[in-house]
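Support reply, case 0932

Customer input (verbatim):
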Amino acid sequence: MVREAVSEGASRRRTAATHRGTGASEKMFLGLDVLLVLVLGTVHSLPATYTHAWMLQLAGVAGLAWRVSRASPRRAALLGWLFATAWIAAGTWWLYISMHRYGGLPAWMAGAAVLALSGFLALYFALAMALFARLRRHNFIVDTLVFAGCWLLAELARGVLLTGFPWAASGYAHIDSPLAMLAPWVGVYGIGWATAALGAIAVLGFRAGTGPGGLGAVVAIAAVVGMALAKPVGFTRGNGSLALTLLQSNVAQDEKFAEAKLPQALTWAASSLQAARGDLVLAPETIVPLLPDQLPEGYWDALAAGFRRGDRAALIGVPLGSFEAGYTNSAVGLSRDTAKWPGGFYRYDKHHLVPFGEFIPTGFHWFTEMMNIPLGDFNRGPVGAPSFEVKGQRVAPNICYEDLFGEELAAHFRDPEHAPTLFANLSNIGWFGDSIALAQHLNISRMRAIEFQRPMLRATNTGMTVVIDHTGRVTHQLPPLTMAVLEAQVEGRQGLTPYASWAARWWLWPLLVFAGVSLLIVVPLRRS
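Our regenerated output:
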């Protein structure tokens, strides 16, 4: 009896020690996983800025697929959330500059706000990875489709819900990669699905070991090589050319509305516009930072008169409106043909407003009141507004980060006969200093050019002021953070890409349906 009791006690101690060891081991592995996905998420963000490093994006999403492929739904949600938080924070850290340097928030509060926004947007990916862990079948083909479908759902949610903020979405990493050839077919979100599928099939196929599963990595590599060797399809054709003059005013953000600096900025804007030689002159968002009736007497009339004579035209960033009617962030078009428009000028009003900058979300007035930034609730313009016609070209303006939303630009193609031949982006991202935001915004514009096979002209306050051709190639560029004028030529394009055609009709619904169908593939397997 004594011997049995001693033996039983020893067994219990060994079992308890084993449990303690297993618990410690699980905590250690979880800690390593947390560190790994934070690194992977940060690495995943880099090619949105440095597009030559596009392989890092594939490595990042493949690494996430590897870590969640055997995780429980709860653990997969945690890993997905950490990965996406690191990715979004590393890709949008420059928001800190606007809130701290120009908004006057304490450093800790501005940093916390960036992390809070990143963590909130990362919740979509937490839910997506939990769903993947719940639906996976340990079949590398099925699980690849499910993983990519969940990834696509998360990217669509981040890009659309609560006005959307898809900055540094995964597809932007591939502007200079072989996957760019997919853009005219499926757009940036479709490229994101393809990267998730390639990453998943490589690592899940490798994990499957011998047999068909072992070919996963080979299939992924072969797909990328095949796209690199394939010739991109040209869906559009030339439609004549325009001479351009693009202005870059380089007014520091903390001086833009300063009374002491306004006369100098207004004088430079007027003299540069009047001296411009191009058929089309583009001036940045709010290069004229005052309402027309607030300007010095005769300023606006002289500016307009200069373009109502001769054959030049201009698109100028200026606020419009009144206290009674409300205000808009607008682009005004001036030419000898604009007398037919109300007020005697073409008008484009920004549709997709910036949260906290151009409208204040409900419940957040306390936050914006803490910042020393001129904020307000602006009125929205219509989606798919008419283009500005210049010498046979139809120029579709967009302001600030509106070019981030390709599905909204696609609304211009609902009537192919009046579809734009050029896009023009007027921006001021002086809020973010000399940061990666400038290069990232350039890459966003390049993606839109590839999706629609239309040139994108960019006139900005601090950079990047460029001309992008219909293949996404930068043909002319000014150095950022300089006051300068860019003279260039551009060829307009006509014709529709598949993406322009289906997004104009159905917005992003085809991608949403595709993602849903890719998840339904597990239904018959669950029944078997």
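We compared this against your earlier run and they match. Two observations from our side: Residues 14-23 have pLDDT under 50 and may be disordered. The first strand starts at residue 237 and ends at 248. Please reopen the case if you see a mismatch on your end.
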